[in-house]
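S.,

Sequence below, as promised.
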Amino acid sequence: MLCSLYTAASGLAAQQFNIDTIANNLANVNTTGYKKVRPEFQDLLYLSLQEPVLQQENQGAGAGTPLGLYVGLGARPSGSQTIMRQGNLQKTENPLDVALSGSGFFAVSQERDGNNRFYTRDGSFKHDASGDIVTSDGCYVLSDNGNTINIPTGAKEISIARDGTITFTNSGDDDFQEAGKLGVVQFSNPVGLERAGHNLYQVTEASGNPQVNTADSTVEQYYLESSNIQVADEIINLITAQRAYELNSKAVQASDEMLGIANNLRR
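The prediction came back faster than expected:
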């Protein structure tokens, strides 16, 4: 009975983690470029009460036990799987709003020299006071050669090609000038990236190093990628997790009642 208490407690903790993850997904349903997180679970160690034994030919009937006897000890969260499915593209009116169609990431940096790099799917870019293209948090958007991209103040028309090349015209001049090319990178294992918050990802050993390869990614100007959260699916997952939590709490209650009965046998 004590085993059932600890087992049910582990189930409560696992379902709490499940609900926390679902709640975070729902909270980010309108976050640009957000990718769904799916919790994964594993069963814990088993208490072996009887091992299976193979029956030998020269032994009598009943000498073998084809089935073992085990007691499970619960479950635990084993990982958070990021679902990198493409989100829908939403039309905007800002020429610096860009979305990636494909599996790439924009390269950004917290420092102007390109150090301390991060990667993002959020293409809602802006100008800073110096004309550099930055994110909403002020991170510098990097070009394919690792430099910042600057568009002079007073630029009249900004165009971003599908390969990420940025061109603009100055006031009184209809000739386009090139400002740079957006740095779009890919990873051999993008789900291994570490979430750093603020719509940013960091490189890890599991993700591998960034590879400059835009063959699988195109840049769409005047669009932003919405989150890939399906609200109906998350609500169903939430109901399932809530019921699982309730069932584990019932197991705790049943174990407590059985212990109460055992304690009252001598009365």
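The mean pLDDT is 90.

Coffee later?
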